[in-house]
Every structure is written in structure tokens, then in C-alpha cells.
Amino acid sequence: MIGQGDNMSRVIAISGAMGRMGRRIAELAANAGHTVAAPIDQKSAGENYGALLADPRHKASVVTAYTGGAEVLIDFSLPAAFEPRLRECLKHKTAFVSGTTGLLPAHFELLDSAARQIPVLWAANMSTGVNLLLALARRCAAALPESFDIEIVEMHHRKKIDAPSGTALALLHAICEGNRRNPGEVVRHGRSGHTGERTRPEVGMHALRGGDVVGDHTVIFAAEGERIELTHKASSRDTFAGGALRAAEWLAGKPAGRYSMAQVLGMSD
Fold first, then answer.
1. pLDDT over 70 for what percent of the chain?
2. pLDDT tens across 131-151, in order?
3. How far apart are CA 104 and CA 141, in angstroms?
4. Which of 21, 108, 119, 193 is the most exposed place for a label (fewest CB within 10 A)?
5. Would the CA dihedral through 12, 18, 19, 21 be positive or negative?
6. Which residues are catalytic?
7. pTM confidence score
8. CATH match of 128-234 with 3.30.10.20
9. Residue 5: its pLDDT value, please?
């Protein structure tokens, strides 16, 4: 079953509970026998979550802040909500799983600090396929000579508000880990006008938006006479929602520390 990483029923909180991802996580959680004790959202505060979702399995009311009572909080919201939810998890000693994108370096500093007291996990993308793509991109970048040019192309639905996607940025970092480049120095966001020849070390980054695309990501390694393309296409948000739930099941009860989806999926070295 999607999301089932163990056989234990968990008590969870969901930040961004009224969003598309939050609603799907809630449904998968109920299917797996978990309890959503704290659906958190600025919308519909005080209303019964089960009634809003037309799912009587959910008994709690929507709240605007986390006040404890869960084993793990899943955060799929906006950067503005990331810090308050993390601080609330620190206060109540609750494990913290986040898939929120568009975060700033300061957010990751807070995450590292929180990891000294509670178990935390952040991932730009929680699907099994994308995490395999990250590993493959890292290995290709390490194995291929510098003569290969590298480009990243991502496409999402028209309503996505951040660009490039968190997954595209994760791919950039995986590539730079592989070929030992500095992401901030080599990334080039799109091209326009008289750009001149492509420089050898740069990694092109291109964000497309349109329709209802859930998420497509391609890494292109191109050289004279040959080209390697690594592509992942998501056709359902269940790949992300199920991965988030699997991460929450796995993280609950772990000692304090910073964890990764590679560890959840048994793909870490």
C-alpha cells in the first residue's frame, strides 16, 4: 500500500492540510490506519476536517498552529509557515517531515539547528523515482569527462509559484557533488539574446510552466556525437504524498538528527 513503511498506526499532524498535497496525504494516512490529530491550515480554521474532505474518518478540527499531540508533523505548505511549524515541533518534541519548496538558506540553518533536538527530514521531492534520478545524475556527473555539457529542464503546472522547482535545484546540487563544482558559480538560468558560446562548466537550468503537469524533470549530458538523457515524469501526486507519508512513518520515534529520503528508501551509501 502507498505510504506504508511499517505496520504501526501513527498519530500525525499535517501543515497545509487544506492544500492538494495535504488532502491527499490525509486520505492515504487514513487508508493506512493513521490518525490525523492536527490538520493545520489558515483556511477553514475551526471547521471539522472530515466534513471538509467528505471523509468521516477524520475527527479533528482545522487549527492554525500545532499545539502538540502528534508523533510526527508533515509540512507541505509555504515557506512562511515552515519556521513556525518547525519551532512548534521543537517545543513539543515532535518529528518533522517537510516537502515545502522555495526555502531560503536561513530555513536550512534552522533545520540543522532543530536536528540537534528532534528528528527532521526535508526533501525537495519524496518520490522513489526522483531519488533514484538524483543518485543517477550524481554518478553520471562523476563518471563523465568535462567535455559533456549539462542541462536541467523541468516542467510543472501553471499554478506552481516557485521556479526552478526544488527538485531541479536538488538535481543541480547532486550533479555538482558528482563533478565537484560549486552550484552557485555554474548554474545559468535560461538564455536570451546574444549569449556567446556556452561555457564549459556551466549547468543550464530551464523552468517550463503550463497545464496540469504534475512534475517532469530531465537531466541532459551532451557531448560531441552522443547524448545521455535521464528523465522522470510524475503523473500522480500520490508519488509525492505516499513518499511523504512513508517518510513520516519511518521518522517517527527516531533519535534527533537530520535524515534524508535516501535513508528512508534504503538507497544511502
1. 97
2. 999 999 999 999 999 999 999
3. 26
4. 193
5. positive
6. 156, 160
7. 0.79
8. no
9. 52
> Is there a cis peptide before residue 201, judged by omega within 30 degrees of 0?
no
Place of cell 516557485: 162
Task: Tell the CATH superfamily of the 11-126+237-264 domain.
Answer: NAD(P)-binding Rossmann-like Domain (3.40.50.720)
Residue pair 28/240 in contact (Cβ under 8 Å)? The answer is no
Span 96-116, mean pLDDT? 95
Alpha carbons 169 and 152: distance in angstroms, whole number: 9
Helix ranges restricted to H, 93-218: 105-114, 128-143, 166-179, 183-186
State in Å, rounded, how far the first CA of the chain is from the last one: 26
Amino acid at 32: A
Question: For residue 223, what are the β-bridge partners?
Answer: 226
Domain boundaries, the chain: 11-126+237-264, 128-234
Residues in CB range of 125: below 8 A, 6 or more apart: 99, 131, 166, 167, 170, 215, 240, 243, 261
Amino acid in the structure at residue 214 = V
Q: Which three cell numbers stand for residue 74?
A: 508533515
